[in-house]
Amino acid sequence: xxxxxxxxxxxxxxxxxxxxxxxxxxxxxxxxxxxxxxxxxxxxxxxxxxxxxxxxxxxxxxxxxxxxxxxxxxxxxxxxxxxxxxxxxxxxxxxxxxxxxxxxxxxxxxxxxxxxxxxxxxxxxxxxxxxxxxxxxxxxxxxxxxxxxxxxxxxxxxxxxxxxxxx
Length: 167
Description:
This protein is an alpha+beta fold. Among the domains are: about 45-105, Complement Module, domain 1 (Ribbon), CATH 2.10.70; about 110-155, no CATH class. It contains two helices and nine strands. Mean pLDDT is about 80; it is low at about 20-25 and about 35-40. It holds the Pfam family Sushi. Keywords: Disulfide bond, Signal, Sushi. InterPro entries: ComplSys_Reg/VirEntry_Med, Sushi/SCR/CCP_sf, Sushi_SCR_CCP_dom. This is Sushi domain-containing protein.
């Protein structure tokens, strides 16, 4: 590198570092929250009441109309887990970012009793979701595996499953 290139780079570096440019953090944006600048007009439309979500309660006032840019929050009921973020936002007449609440996997005592099984072991979840783990069942003493039974080792990814059976 010759001395002129060096001086140019040095001046450019000093000029840029002396400025107070804002630093923006990169964030992930859900697909439905992307805005098409061709479609977006200068006028905004308000939203009606936020959508009702199965197995969740809305943490917002019961208004009839919400301004564009308003945010409401949801909370899933017990034994349910949220898919998405708890916040939904009003944008030009529609709600975006509305989450879902799905049933988490649980070893239910009555279901295990009806199928003559017991919990043998369970792994801890390695992810942030409470329903991402493995369970293994075994027959209760005096019972044997039903040949048509589903597998005794289950990975819970979402929602309920079919229990194995012993006869």
